[in-house]
Amino acid sequence: xxxxxxxxxxxxxxxxxxxxxxxGASGKVFRARCERxxxxxxxxxxxxxxxxxxxxHRRILVxxxxxxSWKLFHPYLITVFETFADxxxxxxxxxxxxxxxxxxxxxxAARLPVEEVLEIARKCCIALGYASRxxxxxxxxxxxxxxxxxRGEIRITDFGGAIFRNLDKSAIANFGxxxxxxxxxxxxxxxxxxxxMFSLGxxxxxxxxxxxxxxxxDSQAVSFKILYTDAxxxxxxxxxxxxxxxxxxxxxxxxxxxxxxxGWEAFGAALSPRKPVQPGExxxxxxxxALRAMGVSLFEGLEQIELRRVAKALRTWSAGDxxxxxxxxxxxxxxxxxxxxxxxxxxxxxxxxxxLVWICGVQPQGALPxxxxxxxxxxxxxxxxxxxxxxxxxxxxxxxxxxxxxxxxARRGARSAGGAAGLTESLAAARDQxxxxxxxxxxxxxx
Length: 447
What we know:
The chain is 38% helix and 20% strand. The chain is α+β, with helices and mostly antiparallel strands and 447 residues long. The protein folds into three domains: 93 residues, 2-Layer Sandwich (Phosphorylase Kinase, domain 1); 169 residues, Transferase(Phosphotransferase), domain 1 (Orthogonal Bundle), CATH 1.10.510.10; 164 residues, Sandwich (Jelly Rolls), CATH 2.60.120.10. The strands form five sheets. Strands 1-2-3-5-4 form a five-stranded antiparallel β-sheet, sandwiched between helices.
């Protein structure tokens, strides 16, 4: 397709095409401007003719991007706004990140400071840990798929080849970039999150040394090295690296998945050692005490062991991470600190410390899309119901409390909005979705 024709097609969809940002095996990524909002976006154009991308391949790539944009929402994962298609191309409209990807920093002369690589690594562990808890394996972690939003800030992109709980029979076989594949990925084995760990280990090795741990003239030779040759010890190439970082990278590159980290939290902890726990104090005690201090009535009266389970399933977003707040489909969220302003169909609403602001992906305040705006000092706690699905008793305690919250909020909202029916309907929709999600979780538990 000629560029003028592409410009015309995208203008018909409401986008003004800008410069080319990059290209890969499946297509090109352009900077663009949304004419409706004047916001800058990135548009991936996946081509069908030439380039080896047949219609079925395109369908899977775009279906994955679309589906996972609803399953995954995290400040360190790229946000997909919409997808659309015509006879020749598919288009994925995404968040625009102006820092580019990490590929330019994988050369010896352009290495990033060690402190920034550490920060990038920690945030990759957080983001990929979240994806793993949602049952997603990325399968193509490499410098070109990690965007640098600002110093130390990242977005992981390109979930087109990802698999969901290894059950996706439509997934593209042999997907990935040879130099960053794990041994089990090279063999075509079933994959779990430890495969992505290996790939991240390769990325960190390259960012820190400027070389690949498994380098060869062609992909077949690279695959042989990945399967049968140990990676060089990173300390043999750089002697100035922190001991914990050296140990973490070497462990991530272990041939056997069982010799890598047990989970992403352990990988992240190896990169950022915790402050020592005081005598007689456990990490569970510290977490539950912090949970109590949040002042969220939802957790009042829970047993210590239940609070520990909640603390383990909880993660926090800061306003510095996001400008528009939006959790996923099986999550509840509340304000820990600061204030969140919400633009609703019936006027403004302000949520403060302890207030719930989102239940299961539905905006319970009748908010307009993009209406959640946290202040600069705001922190938002996100609790995944999926994380608690192995404890139906705890879910059973939380459900009536959430239902009670929705009823109270409906009455409060109706008064403040002059009895507006729309707000009550929105809250009823939140309640109904909450019941559906927990019902689905219950079915999964029974299976």
